[in-house]
Amino acid sequence: MDSISVTGGNQLNGVIPISGAKNAALPLMIASLLTAEELILRNVPDLADVRQLKKILNNHGVKIEEVAGGGKSDPLAGATLSFNTPKITDTCAPYDLVSTMRASFWVIGPLLAREHEARVSLPGGCAIGSRPVDYFIHGLEALGAHIEIDEGYVVAKAPKGGLIGAMIRLPTPSVGATHTILMAATLAKGTTTILNAAMEPEITNVAECLVAMGAKITGIGTRTLIIDGVASLHGASIDVVPDRIEAGTFAMAVAMTGGDVLLKGAQRQHLQAALDILQANGVKITEEADGIRVQASGDRLRAVDVEIDTFPGFPTDLQAQYMTLMTRADGIAKIKETIFENRFMHVAELARFGAKIDSEGQVATVTGIEKLKGAQVMATDLRASVSLVIAGLVAEGETNVSRIYHLDRGFERLEEKLGACGANIQRITK
Ligand code: UD1
After folding, report:
1. Do 278 and 285 form a contact (C-beta atoms < 8 A)?
2. Which of 170, 339, 343, 407 to mutate to test the pocket of ligand 1 (most atoms within 8 A of CB)?
3. Contact status, residue 188 vs residue 215, Cβ threshold 8 Å
4. Which of 143, 300, 339, 386 maximizes the CB count within 10 A of its CB?
5. Residues 139, 182: Cα–Cα separation, whole Å
């Protein structure tokens, strides 16, 4: 199994190109199931989750090809992929394909909308909480679907003639439930209103793609999405938005080590809450024409409390990285996780670096110390694993992060990007 070895102490300087967002690429790929025509996605990152979803879509009959050159001048830009699904050949998403990635469950929306039936294994993904699918089930039932759980599968059937528009209020603004109900509603008869919808930039990216495919959606970028169903969707081409979580992660890495890095392609409005906190910590953030510039001295930063929230709040996917940053801050920071009930698994691993963190329920109290010491640590989930790499960048001596298959699910060429800015980091392949 691969691991990452980091020797701490180097500052980061240079330019880091931000990849297309995993959390947008996955639902955009899934949206290709909604049309018999060609969907073209540009700036698709090369990630383990994207490769896995390609296999899942292939199983449903989607033909996926890389468009040669893809019109890209930058060799580091993501791929341009073409998706063609003249016919859905299988409406079942089997356990062995979907068990590693929660987002693969979202195929249930388009399958049900286009084929009026779906059999999808209950999802897997990072073990950061129980992550149930009740909102999806209630939402699809409101659209008229009949749903049963059978041997670990959700079996859904639309009424004769297809799904029917409805008013759906999500108990909390779930990203996955919003994507799924939104996609399902594009082909339903009549109007669907999703109240308390998630409004993450990746939802907006998908909604704009659906509009380009002929869907009728208003309220994009707000908590209320209104969808007027249409009979069919057509082909389109769209760019995957830059990955705000990758950008925020690198911003925190620079804040930690000190240095001066341009996060090329990063969009300030997608990351405002985290950038505000970094500024309060003492990091200089400047918006430039081609991205966000992050400058830090490498001295200890001010400790600032953070409460995680849905977009536009401080993202849960940056919580672990921020906790790492606070381990060396001057003072005490309280970090409150509000989205997932079990997302502090990195606390025990950060303690191996000497970090002082007490966690109780959903609140972690981090008492900053002068120095971290390199350690042998283990990645526990996708975002937590990168927080350990960030700790290694400043820790004295060598750090080895094992089980980095978690990291490969969501970070493209991490060690290459950090290495190019001066980090002493290598992947060890066994
Ligand atoms: C998505 C992101 C993930 C991010 C999360 C929160 C992708 C591929 N993944 O995950 O990176 O951390 O949003 O921003 O985009 N919930 C229920 N019942 C449901 C659905 C959700 O109780 O039916 C709960 C979950 O257990 C969780 C909360 O709602 O506590 C938020 O989950 P959700 O927004 O759905 O996250 P994901 O879509 O899984």
Report:
1. yes
2. 339
3. no
4. 386
5. 10
Q: What is the spatial distance between Cα 119 and Cα 66, in angstroms, rounded to a whole number?
A: 29
Which of these, 96, 113, 93, 87, lies nearest to 105 by C-alpha position?
93
Task: Determine phi and psi for 102, rounding to 5 degrees.
Answer: -60, -35
* CB-based contacts of 76, cutoff 8 Å, min separation 6: 17
Sign of CA dihedral 235, 94, 147, 123: negative
Pocket of ligand 1 (CB under 6 A): 23, 26, 102-103, 129, 131-136, 172, 174-177, 198, 202, 316-317, 339-340
Q: How far is the CA of 197 from the centre of ligand 1 (A)?
A: 12
What is the distance between the terminal CA atoms of the chain, rounded to a whole angstrom?
A: 6
430 residues of the chain, pLDDT tens digit each: 889 999 999 999 999 999 999 999 999 999 999 999 999 999 999 999 999 999 999 999 999 999 976 655 566 678 999 999 999 999 999 999 998 888 999 999 999 999 999 999 988 654 545 568 999 999 999 999 999 999 889 999 999 999 999 999 999 999 999 999 999 999 999 999 999 999 999 999 999 999 999 999 999 999 999 999 999 999 999 999 999 999 999 999 999 999 999 999 999 999 999 999 999 999 999 999 999 999 999 899 999 999 999 999 999 999 999 999 999 999 999 999 999 887 898 999 999 999 999 999 999 999 999 999 999 999 888 888 999 999 999 999 999 999 888 899 889 999 999 999 999 999 999 8
83 near 62, Cβ under 8 Å? yes
Question: Is 126 assigned a catalytic role?
Answer: yes
Structure tokens at 350: 């950060």
Amino acid at 354: G
| Inter-CA distances, 23 with 84, 244, 359, 406, Å | 21, 10, 28, 15
**∠ CA 174-128-240 to the nearest 5 degrees?**
50
**What DSSP character marks residue 371?**
-
Q: How far is the CA of 93 from the centre of ligand 1 (A)?
A: 20
